[in-house]
Amino acid sequence: MATQVIPLDYKTPPFPSLYSPFRPLRGQAQYLFYTGDVLRFTLYWTLLFYAGAHLTAALCAVVLQWRSNWRKILWAAPLLYTVVAALQALLAGSVVGLVDRLGLVFEAGSFKMSTWIPFIWAVINTLVLILSSFTIQGGL
């Protein structure tokens, strides 16, 4: 396997640095080389997606409970959901970024990682979060 040498003039691309994955123009594609960058990008994307999923659920809760007697403290639902989203995203993003050794494998082999990989892992994390919120009944 051929390895990539990290360019001498390499600078971490700014977040989000996504590009068209289908035939990107020369110089348009952005890559990550270091584990810290992979962790940061994965954590940011996971925070964004988790916040979106939790705030959507909070909005549903507010709309459904609007006519109830709890209207005085209803504003706390989005705040509580946002705090929970941040904590879950911190844990999930760190697990994928470090414990899963996603970035370490690429750094050890001096491979370049597309900025799309942390984005895709954040989408996978969010889908797992949504799927795990449902109860699954056994058919036995």
From TrEMBL:
Segments traversing the membrane: 43-66, 73-96, 116-136
Keywords: Membrane, Transmembrane, Transmembrane helix
Cellular component GO terms held in the UniProt record: membrane
Membrane topology category: Multi-pass membrane protein
InterPro entries: TMEM170A/B/YPR153W-like (IPR019334)
Pfam families in the cross-refs: Tmemb_170 (PF10190)
Cellular location(s): Membrane
PANTHER family: SD17342P (PTHR22779:SF6)
Protein family membership: Belongs to the TMEM170 family.
Protein name: Integral membrane protein
